Amino acid sequence: MVFDTVHIDAGGAGLTGDLVSPEPARGVVAFAHGSGSSRHSPRNQTVARVLQQAGLVTLLFDLLTDEEERIDAVTAEHRFDIPLLGRRLVDAVDWLDGHPATQGLPVGLFGASTGAAAALTAAAERPERVGAVVSRGGRPDLAGEALGRVRAPVLLIVGGEDHQVLDMNREAVDRIEAPSTVHIIPGATHLFEEPGTLEQAAAAARDWFISMTIPGSEAVP
């Protein structure tokens, strides 16, 4: 594994990320964390390690600058700004296209909580580059009209005990025209803190992303 701290110019905002590259690499997955979280999220770090072991490069980066994080901690004004977060994820996808370790690799997006809406928004803006999207405990409904423009296969992973979010995901999947499905992890609540549930979610995400790197294959939960 090659570990790099990287800096991404996103519309003039300097964002810091952690790029981990297995060798050889078969694809790359950019993470969009949830509200109030960061690239150091232990849950996303756990998922990232599973993807890395499968030969996928991972990019975990902060969607907000340090100053924006300080403001958001008080006002929460940025964490639900899906257009802003989506634009920055698009900039990250474009950045991956120009980076030597990821140039030309199939691209997947992984979003947690509100980050799922940012991932879907970015997928709608870059249909020629994003090959798969996975949401974990996400709020795809916040992507609004972008849901109907997503062309990449979408996997919505939800805890079986996360009833309100599960309903939101079931409604959202009906609005996504691309191949999509809701994958329920029995016994899991919103943060997948129950023993073994996060590991199940990570395995489902891995399999979905691996399918995008195999020509002619179909993503299955």
Model description:
This protein is α/β, with parallel strands linked by helices and 221 residues long. An 8-stranded mixed beta sheet has the order 1-2-4-3-5-6-7-8, sandwiched between helices. It is globular, with a radius of gyration of 16 Å. The model has no long low-confidence stretch (mean pLDDT 92). It is 35% helix and 25% strand.
Features:
single chain; 6 helices; globular; 35% helix; alpha/beta; 25% strand; 8-stranded mixed sheet; 221 residues
Task: Summarize the structure in short.
The chain is an alpha/beta fold and 221 residues long.
Q: Please, what is the average pLDDT?
A: 92
Strand portion, in percent? 15-25%
How many E strands?
8
How far apart are the termini?
27 Å
State the secondary-structure class.
Answer: alpha/beta
Largest sheet data: 8 strands, mixed
Described by its quaternary structure, the protein is: single chain
What characteristic shape results from the CA principal axes? globular
Order of helices and strands: EEEHEHHEHEEHEH
Contiguous low-pLDDT stretches (5 residues minimum) are none
Instruction: Please report the number of helical segments.
Output: 6
Report the C-alpha radius of gyration, rounded.
16 Å
| Helical amount | 25-40%
**Strand order in the largest sheet:** 1-2-4-3-5-6-7-8
